[in-house]
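Field log, afternoon session.

UNIT: design team B
ACTIVITY: writing a sequence onto a fixed backbone
BACKBONE:
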């Protein structure tokens, strides 16, 4: 009888330890996946900021401001907005490459195509980008 009780207690203890181990593994896996997602979002945002800086000649704080403003206005996640900016840049490069022979070719003549794919497109030539040039870095955009 005592042996059966000891065996039962051993089984219960073993199951409890296994459950604790699985819970820890699940928690570690969730942390890893969250970190991976955060890194992917940060990477996309950095690339989108670089695109805006390169295309419009703005500084990083203005590029970040425009992206975050678009996030608030559109209701999309920061990663989705960044992906749209990156996709618009890809379309722009393809358009520029395909229309190099055209005198007026390039991204500026294909805004309809870009706007159809990425409605936020106005961020590229925003009044903020024109108003706050890189030489005026001390001026902050209105909130």
């Amino acid at each position: 009888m005592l042996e059966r009780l000891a065996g039962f207690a051993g089984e219960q203890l073993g199951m409890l330890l296994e459950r604790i181990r699985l819970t820890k593994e699940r928690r570690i896996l969730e942390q890893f996946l969250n970190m991976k997602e955060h890194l992917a979002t940060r990477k996309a945002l950095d690339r989108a900021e670089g695109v805006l800086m390169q295309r419009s000649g703005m500084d990083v704080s203005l590029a970040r401001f425009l992206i975050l403003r678009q996030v608030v206005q559109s209701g999309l996640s920061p990663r989705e907005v960044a992906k749209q900016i990156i996709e618009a840049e890809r379309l722009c490069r393809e358009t520029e490459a395909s229309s190099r022979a055209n005198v007026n070719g390039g991204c500026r003549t294909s805004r309809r195509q870009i706007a159809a794919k990425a409605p936020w497109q106005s961020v590229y030539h925003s009044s903020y980008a024109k108003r706050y040039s890189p030489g005026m870095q001390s001026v902050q955009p209105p909130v």
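LOG NOTE: The CA atoms of residues 34 and 42 lie 12 Å apart.
NEXT ACTIVITY: expression trials, pending approval
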